[in-house]
Structure to design on (680 residues):
């Protein structure tokens, strides 16, 4: 594998990580902590929305994010020919 | 059958199950053992990781802290799950590609330095021992209730059992045993939650019950009802009370998240999956199984609090007959009084129990003829274990919870003790100081280290620095301030050199330890904190950040010091920079090897 392709692969990986971590940050630190008071004015079922994100929603998003990242990376591995086997 | 007998039977049969599986798996897996790297399926690995990871802090302690800190305890929920996102993206796949067995080995090789490896070992030992103290607190609580004895005696019995359990070693190493432990643990956690959710809201799914409406005819949502019940007694509103300040909650969450990604016993699990791609998805599966407990915990916490409050305050606040008569207290109350973790004191001599927040209720309480809060001690760590009894659930459910709590506490404590003993015998003695040590002596050193750690952790567990989850949070802070930055920069910054990494780790863990010991005592020994305090010292003096959250600050110090020092010293040699490039791509991953 040429060093050019390696750096392209790494750059694509970094872009993906940054995208995922922005979402990770927004749902937990954003919705769950910094904006909790504003979101608490909205009710979701019988729960305040900010409270819900802090105790439920953020965890669901974390799970989804990891599987999203794993599947995108598997695709990226093949595109750049760096997959195992 | 009475509760005590039933509990013995359930706890005994789960232990028999673990031992049985350990023997069965050992017999059939000797051939697999030599096919290095074949490993287990990511889903199975994820489940085992979840069992390994969820300790007394998660099972016994966390819901109790949620019950009393409401929204503020969200830091535990987000902090102990969000770290897996960091693991999956920033560490696991690259460490798997690197293919070594221990975290200090990676740090020693990546930073081409024995000094870096030794510093990493010391940081790991400090974090792990603190972690074990937290487990000991949980084990002490569980055994004291289980054997109906004092907390201290429960702790001694627990120490003995942990020692036997950890020395048996093999039980821990077998993935299938951990899968069984996960099943017991999650069953024990969710079954009472389903019952209680059904009782209070009519919804069998606790996650939905949290948002449900009370079935008591009030027409209020469960959380509104809880807010009302606690605020009437002067406590802070459940859904909005914060832990410290917003900044403190932010730092607390950061500390737990990056601590998760820096703790050796979690990282190691990703070294042994078959492929790099499996390391990514395995973190996801681990989080799925963890999330089942973590999304149930908010329901357990809030509903336990509501049940507890309504057991003691049976009617309108201020009505004389609305407070529970002490002589008529339920059996669970008497049982927990025996442990010393629940204490009542009849301050106004009326024979009834008044449980309220003195500061919050103020003058109003005096008007009712109340002379102070009479529940002088309600240890948060008893909430999960007492919860099914408070809710009048059948005895077999209560017995099951005891078995689940012990499984969670014992498996994690044993795992950590093994990590401590192997880092002393393998990384320190064999790898550094006495390379020619015989295998027999290496094992002996490991056992001695393990016994020493149990003794130390047990002694410190007699006067724990906090509730189980709080103590464990300090352990995460230490890992966050030392290991995580070194690992992350090792992969994402090719120019990070040995001097920078070592200086960063030392600076990060030192400031964190100083801040923690200043409040909790040097090495958590009671009465030694004053030596580090200056005149006018107040708790959480640094921007209001509590000791449990300070790992976030320590990590920032680590990153900054490492970066500055690396800029002032020579860059790492060429072959190390190639090594980093190689770690970044999956292709060519061999199986994991030891030194």
């Amino acid at each position: 594998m040429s060093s050019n392709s390696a750096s392209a692969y790494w750059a694509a990986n970094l872009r993906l990580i940054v995208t995922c971590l922005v979402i990770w940050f927004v749902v937990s630190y954003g919705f769950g902590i910094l904006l909790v008071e504003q979101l608490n004015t909205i009710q979701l079922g019988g729960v305040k929305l900010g409270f819900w994100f802090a105790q439920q929603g953020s965890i669901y998003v974390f799970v989804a994010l990891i599987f999203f990242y794993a599947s995108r990376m598997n695709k990226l591995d093949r595109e750049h020919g760096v997959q195992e086997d | 059958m009475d509760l005590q007998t039933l509990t013995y039977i359930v706890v005994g049969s789960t232990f028999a199950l673990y031992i049985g599986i350990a023997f069965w798996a050992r017999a059939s897996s000797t051939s697999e053992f030599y096919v290095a790297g074949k490993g287990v399926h990511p889903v199975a690995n994820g489940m085992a990781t979840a069992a390994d990871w969820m300790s007394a802090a998660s099972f016994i302690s966390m819901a109790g802290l949620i019950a009393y800190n409401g929204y503020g305890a969200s830091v535990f929920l987000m902090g102990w799950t969000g770290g897996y996102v960091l693991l999956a993206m920033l560490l696991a796949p690259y460490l798997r590609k690197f293919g070594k067995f221990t975290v200090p080995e990676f740090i020693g090789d990546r930073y081409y330095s024995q000094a870096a490896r030794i510093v990493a070992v010391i940081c790991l030992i400090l974090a792990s021992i603190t972690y074990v103290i937290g487990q000991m607190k949980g084990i002490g609580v569980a055994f004291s209730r289980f054997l109906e004895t004092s907390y201290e005696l429960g702790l001694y019995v627990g120490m003995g059992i942990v020692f036997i359990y950890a020395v048996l070693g093999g039980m821990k190493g077998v993935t299938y045993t951990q899968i069984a432990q996960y099943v017991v643990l999650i069953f024990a956690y969710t079954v009472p939650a389903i019952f209680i959710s059904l009782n209070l809201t009519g919804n069998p799914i606790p996650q939905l019950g949290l948002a449900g409406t009370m079935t008591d005819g009030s027409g209020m949502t469960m959380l509104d009802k809880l807010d009302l019940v606690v605020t009437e007694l002067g406590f802070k509103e459940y859904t909005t009370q914060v832990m410290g300040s917003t900044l403190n909650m932010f730092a607390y969450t950061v500390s737990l998240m990056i601590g998760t990604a820096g703790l050796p016993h979690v990282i190691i699990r990703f070294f042994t999956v078959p492929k790099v791609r499996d390391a990514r998805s395995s973190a996801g599966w681990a989080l799925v199984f963890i999330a089942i407990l973590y999304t149930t915990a908010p329901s357990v916490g809030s509903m336990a609090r509501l049940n507890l409050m309504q057991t003691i305050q049976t009617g309108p606040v201020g009505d004389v007959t609305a407070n529970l008569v002490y002589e008529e207290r339920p059996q669970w109350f008497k049982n927990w009084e025996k442990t010393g973790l629940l204490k009542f004191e009849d301050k106004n001599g009326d024979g009834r129990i008044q449980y309220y927040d003195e500061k919050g209720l103020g003058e109003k309480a005096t008007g009712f003829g109340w002379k102070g809060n009479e529940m002088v001690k309600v240890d948060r760590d008893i909430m999960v274990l007492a919860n099914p009894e408070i809710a009048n659930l059948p005895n077999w459910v209560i017995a099951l919870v005891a078995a689940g709590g012990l499984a969670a506490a014992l498996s994690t404590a044993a795992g950590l003790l093994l990590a401590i003993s192997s880092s002393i015998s393998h990384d320190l003695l064999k790898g550094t100081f006495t390379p020619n040590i015989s295998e027999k002596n290496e094992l002996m050193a490991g056992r001695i280290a393990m016994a020493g750690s149990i003794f130390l952790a047990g002694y410190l567990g007699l006067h724990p620095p906090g509730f189980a989850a709080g103590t464990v949070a300090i352990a995460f802070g230490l890992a966050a301030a030392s290991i995580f930055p070194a690992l992350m920069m090792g992969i994402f910054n090719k120019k990070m050199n040995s001097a920078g990494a070592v200086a960063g780790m030392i600076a990060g863990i030192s400031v964190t330890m100083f801040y923690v010991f200043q409040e909790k005592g040097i090495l958590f020994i009671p009465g030694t904190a004053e030596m580090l305090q200056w005149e006018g010292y107040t708790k959480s003096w640094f921007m209001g950040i509590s000791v449990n959250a300070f790992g976030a600050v320590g990590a920032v110090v680590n990153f900054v010091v490492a970066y500055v020092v690396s800029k002032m010293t020579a860059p790492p040699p060429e072959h190390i920079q190639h090594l980093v490039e190689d770690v970044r791509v999956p292709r060519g991953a061999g199986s994991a090897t030891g030194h």
Remarks:
- The beta strands of chain B are 342-344, 375-378.
- Chain B has a mean pLDDT of 87.
